[in-house]
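TODO from last week: model Membrane protein.
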Amino acid sequence: MGHLDHATFGWLTPVLSYAMAVIGAALALRCTVRALGASGRSRRNWLITAASALGTGIWTMHFVAMLGFGVTGTEIHYNVPLTVLSLIVAMLVVGVGVFAVGYGRDRGRALLLGGLTTGLGVASMHYLGMAALRLNGAVSYDPLVVGLSVAIAVVAATAALWAALNIQSPVAVAVASLVMGAAVSSMHYTGMAAVSVQVSPSARDLPGATAMQFVFPLAVGLGSYLFLTAAFVALSPTARERAAYASAERSTEEAVP
């Protein structure tokens, strides 16, 4: 049985992965709040941004954490197509949940559907990402712990979407993002606690790419996307700010003889 180390770089990868989860959650919440105050194409665009931010944040959190994952007695590589598929699944399934909340007329039903869908998307991304592992040995899972990790994902996603529907102040969104980041990280490490590896030493070269060859550059690119999106959202006026600007402009025009 191989010894599993979830933090080969110490606290660096857990802290960075948590930060990615928090940023993704914060962006998704802010974008969803903007979407609920908009209509038409604007609402759709904000919801797409929310889904991409949350999906990207969750995926980046998972694989930044995986940079610190090691197993004694074997190297670890990643199947590139499966790893990319896990990112696409995260964005698409999370998008279904976000749109269910954004367009649902019955908020209670939309919240349950959105939370379940988004939570299953998070879990699917995690276990697809784990299926992309290539090592000298066999990976097995404790089904009870896997079930617990999926339950955590669903509860966390439902809580995040509830926050998007009911919380609008920046401070409250920041607190909700910290909680959501902790929940996503908990889901990840609960899922990793379900893992055991039976190492079978071999001289053959492992297929796929190493974490530093593929996962690290992709995670850096997606992390940059999150920061740029954060800047865009911060600089974009809210519907209330636009209305106030338009009102002030009309008042100025009326005051000019």
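Done. The two ends are 85 Å apart (CA to CA).
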